[in-house]
Amino acid sequence: MHMFTVSVILGLIGVFCILDSRLLGRMNFERPLISCTLVGLCLGDLHTGLVVGASLELISLGLVNIGAAAPPDMNMAAIIAAAFAILTDAGTETALAIAVPISILGQMIGILLRTILSNLTHLADKYIEEEQYVKARRVHIVWGTLPYSLVYFIPIFLAVYVGTDVVQKVVEFIPGWFTNGLGLASKFLTAYGI
Question: What pLDDT digit, counting tens, does each position of 46-81 carry?
Fold first, then answer.
């Protein structure tokens, strides 16, 4: 499959997984184990998808969203990390090392997006006061969903399409002791619930 096609498919998997809890109900497609399995299925390496997904699932079990706190975004991180692990033949430790900074970046993007989308509530309230219920529903369903879709599709698409060779070079540059240390640290972090 051409890398452009793979990038589009993985971007769409990211959109589907993130809309799981926001539009489709809660079927747990945004969990790392499920999203990485979908990536593995798409890329023809189900075993690596499951292994990376299980490892990231252990990390994400320690992330608890309390109140308005936004935890690191393991959904985006899981999809990108599983894709890189499969496409570059990297190990699980490398996928974990890639996933942690991506999850923090996803967290920052998510906070910015939620801040912007909170203003749509006022627009919907205005439409409701004017008894324009179709417009109010459109604000929530379309204009609330579209930015989430783009915020997931674009980074995943770009990371896979542009970044595979770049990430491979970065991974080759990372010393083995550092990657092994991150892998070990991730196992300790889950034991402490972090």
Answer: 999 999 999 998 888 877 666 656 677 888 889 999
By C-alpha distance, which of 75, 48, 84, 88 is closest to 148?
75
Report the C-alpha gap between 23 and 124 in whole angstroms: 17
User: What 3 state SS string does 27-57 have?
Assistant: CCCCCHHHHHHHHHHHHCCHHHHHHHHHHHH
Q: Are 117 and 142 in contact (CB under 8 A)?
A: no
Using an 8 Å Cβ cutoff, are 75 and 106 in contact?
Answer: yes
Question: Which residue's entry shows tokens 């801040």?
Answer: 115
Percent of the chain exceeding pLDDT 70 equals 81
The whole-angstrom separation of Cα 6 and Cα 141 is: 28
The CA distances from residue 142 to 28, 117, 131, 136, 146, in Å, are 22, 12, 18, 10, 6
Model pLDDT for residues 148-169, shown as the tens digit of each residue: 889 889 989 988 888 755 655 6
